[in-house]
């Protein structure tokens, strides 16, 4: 899961980003409305946390522009306490929910989870391919009738492969969707996680699902 945090106060942005990363989200941070718009139009996110008060382009303007451009990513507006008109304006601009500052991290996490669940209707809360099943709500994977224990990053990688199956995905696409923009492209972390998934998903199964396509990337597919 990838989340965009739009917040101009560095301490708040760092605090929120750290909390989300500890809950296994890949997080990008934008400190202005213009930068947020660029991120949201260039990358795919599962949720956007958008502060109303931003230097230059406001959060309301960012939200309205994204909706006008067809971006349907769930948006959680962060608003100042007591300013009902801000919340109304944000919802009218296309936001899905709002959270009043200051907020508890537990509530923030719950709101983000709820927001992402709402977005699942655009794809599916449960992904299936061959005998592989992924429950995105319960974060549970099974192959056949056997549970497959996965770390948070392994789950995110498998989720992305299944969303695209049986089409191939490139290494750069995996980095974009599973890790954040600060990923060190020189590391072999993608290859390491692909191998871990192979061991957990394909080991002890005659039909292999995860394949390397030399010069292209990877593919989750059932081959003859």
Mean pLDDT: 87
Q: Can you identify the CATH superfamily of the largest domain? A: Response regulator
Number of strands: 11
Q: In total, how many domains does the architecture comprise?
A: 2
Concise description?
By secondary structure, the chain is of the alpha/beta class.
Overview of the molecule:
Helix 2 runs parallel beside helix 3 (59-68) and helix 6 (152-164) packs across helix 8. The protein has 2 domains: 2-121, Response regulator (Rossmann fold, 3-Layer(aba) Sandwich); 126-220, Winged helix-like DNA-binding domain superfamily/Winged helix DNA-binding domain (Arc Repressor Mutant, subunit A, Orthogonal Bundle). The longest helix is centred in the middle third of the chain and has 15 residues, at 105-119. It is 41% helix and 21% strand. With 224 residues, the protein is an alpha/beta fold.
Layout: helices, strands, pairs:
Layout: E1 2-6, H1 10-22, E2 26-30, H2 33-42, E3 47-51, H3 59-68, E4 75-79, H4 84-93, E5 97-100, H5 105-119, E6 126-129, E7 132-135, E8 140-143, E9 146-148, H6 152-164, H7 171-178, H8 189-201, E10 210-213, E11 217-220
Parallel strand pairs: 1-2, 1-3, 3-4, 4-5
Antiparallel strand pairs: 6-7, 7-8, 8-9, 10-11
Helix pairs in contact: 2-3, 6-8
Could you list some keywords that capture this structure?
single chain, 224 residues, alpha/beta, Rossmann fold, Arc Repressor Mutant, subunit A, 2 domains, five-stranded parallel beta sheet, 8 helices, 41% helix
């Amino acid at each position: 899961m990838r989340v965009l945090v739009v917040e101009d106060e560095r301490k708040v942005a760092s605090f929120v980003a750290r909390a989300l990363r500890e809950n296994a989200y890949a997080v990008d941070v934008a400190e202005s409305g213009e930068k947020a718009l660029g991120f949201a139009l260039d990358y795919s996110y599962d949720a956007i946390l958008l502060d109303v008060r931003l230097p230059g382009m406001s959060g309301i303007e960012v939200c309205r522009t994204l909706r006008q451009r067809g971006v349907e990513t769930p948006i959680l507006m962060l608003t100042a306490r007591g300013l009902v008109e801000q919340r109304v304006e944000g919802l009218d601009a296309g936001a899905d929910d709002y959270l009043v500052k200051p907020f508890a991290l537990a509530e923030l996490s719950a709101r983000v989870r709820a927001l992402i669940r709402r977005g699942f209707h655009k794809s599916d809360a449960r992904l299936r391919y061959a005998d592989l099943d992924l429950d995105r709500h319960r974060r549970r994977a099974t192959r056949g009738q056997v549970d497959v224990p996965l770390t948070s990053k392994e789950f995110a990688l498998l989720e992305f492969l299944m969303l695209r199956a049986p089409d191939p995905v490139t290494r750069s696409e995996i980095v974009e969707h599973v890790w954040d923009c600060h990923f060190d492209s020189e590391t072999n972390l993608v290859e390491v996680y692909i191998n871990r998934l192979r061991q957990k998903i394909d080991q002890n199964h005659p039909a292999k699902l995860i394949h390397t396509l030399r010069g292209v990337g990877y593919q989750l597919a059932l081959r003859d």
